[in-house]
Amino acid sequence: MSKIKLPSTLEGKTILVAGAAGFVPGHLCEFYLGLGAKIIGLDNFITGSRSTVELLSKNKNFEFHECNIFERLPDFSKNKIDFIFSLASPASPIDFDQIPVEIMRVNSEGTLKLLEVARAKGARFLEASTSEVYGDPEIHPQVETYQGNVNPIGPRSCYDESKRFAEAMTMSFHRHYKVDTRIVRIFNTYGPRMRPNDGRVIPNFITQALKNQDITVYGDGQQTRSFCYVSDLVQAIHNVMFCDDPTPFNVGNPDEYTVKQAAETIIKYLGAKSKIAYRPIMQDDPRKRRPDLTKLQKISDYRPKVTFEEGIKRTAEHFKGLK
Ligand SMILES: NC(=O)c1ccc[n+]([C@@H]2O[C@H](COP(=O)([O-])OP(=O)(O)OC[C@H]3O[C@@H](n4cnc5c(N)ncnc54)[C@H](O)[C@@H]3O)[C@@H](O)[C@H]2O)c1
User: Fold this and answer.
1) How far apart are CA 223 and CA 263, in angstroms?
2) Which of 9, 130, 145, 230 is the most buried (most CB within 10 A)?
3) Please, what is the end-to-end C-alpha distance for the chain in angstroms?
4) Which residues are bridge partners to 142 per DSSP?
């Protein structure tokens, strides 16, 4: 596999970003606005934030449409679209519990609608899949060739299985209609502009540490996770969008922590007085998570740059600034 050549500018290019008001997509929009692209953002705010759209809208190259992508997309008949990022999906365990049907619909019907736009416009399409496609993995670290251990009817299945479906649909459009597609499998990512009450590990721990409350750890805390700071993730996604391989790539940070270590480290970095409070483990909680990044590193010189300490401090600063 040869190394990719990244564009120095995307001036004159139009990028459609589904989920633009969300955490990762908002950072991705900022990155591409910085490269001079025009962005068309779509979101229905089910988990996204209006303040992210207000921030992005300061740039004249950002255009926004409020819409539910699995119901109806705006009329793009007069638009040129060069790239499509399919990032619209709630992604937190709290969402799996509260809006499972919306999650299944956006990853299936929503992805289908976006792929149809890619086909009609001749645009390159990237699907934001997830490490959850590996379920509770039996091999470690996870390589892209591993086919996963997913419970199809468990409480996480609305997300895991609909993302697996989205990957299958993406590959079907690639094989059958020759659409130019990419797939990234995103591992745990954190950073500023996550919802403080998001329900995912890092925002939970930071929010509790900033209030000196007990840090809630589910199970014995020996399950592992690998946490990627959002700017490193955006760089990895960019690298995959500009490679020429349609098969899935793991993207994330390979540094692995037990959840207990992550809690202790956050308490230390933030100088909190919190203790750890253990609660019963959630069903189908994966025991181990670490991306094998060999494939990504064959096409690019990708190395995460932001340390866990720096990332936690930047995220905590953001949470402190919220009213
Ligand atoms: N953050 C992570 O650790 C992580 C890990 C794996 C995969 N991902 C994937 O990355 C993408 C972004 O995740 P995030 O963490 O930024 O989540 P997020 O919830 O902040 O962003 C998702 C955005 O999609 C929007 N959305 C959801 N359903 C929609 C619909 N039907 N129509 C229009 N907009 C809709 C939401 O309002 C939100 O703004 C998702 O596809 C997610 O599955 C994220």
Assistant:
1) 12
2) 230
3) 48
4) 291
Please indicate whether residue 134 is annotated as part of the active site.
no
Domain ranges of the chain: 14-191+230-254+286-305
pLDDT for the residue numbered 323 = 60
Average pLDDT rounded to a whole number, residues 136-152: 96
Model pLDDT for residues 5-22, shown as the tens digit of each residue: 999 999 999 999 999 999
The number of the ligand 1 atom at minimal distance from the alpha carbon of 107 is 41
Q: What is the H or E stretch that residue 64 is in?
A: strand 62-66
Are 92 and 51 in contact by the 8 Å Cβ rule? The answer is no
Q: Is the pLDDT of residue 322 over 90?
A: no
CA atoms within 13 A on the CB side of 92: 21
Q: Cβ(288)–Cβ(281) under 8 Å?
A: no
Which H/E stretch holds residue 225?
strand 224-226
Annotate 239-249 with b (16+ C-beta within 10 A) or e (fewer).
bbbbbeebebb
The pairing of strands 224-226 and 256-258 is antiparallel
14-191+230-254+286-305: CATH architecture? 3-Layer(aba) Sandwich (3.40)
Pocket test for ligand 1, best of 28, 46, 71 (most atoms within 8 A of CB): 46
pTM of model > 0.90:
yes
Distance (angstroms) between ligand 1 centre and the Cα of 110 equals 12
Exposed, middle or buried, 148 (CB in 10 Å: 0-12/13-18/19+)?
middle
Tell me the residue length of the chain: 323
Task: Check if 19 has its Cβ closer than 6 Å to any atom of ligand 1.
Answer: yes
Please give the pLDDT value at position 1.
61
Characterize 62-84 residue by residue with b for buried, 16 or more Cβ atoms within 10 angstroms of its Cβ, and e for exposed: bbbbeebbbeebeebeeeebbbb
> Which of these is catalytic: 134, 159, 190, 257?
159
* Distance from Cα 25 to the centre of ligand 1, integer Å: 7
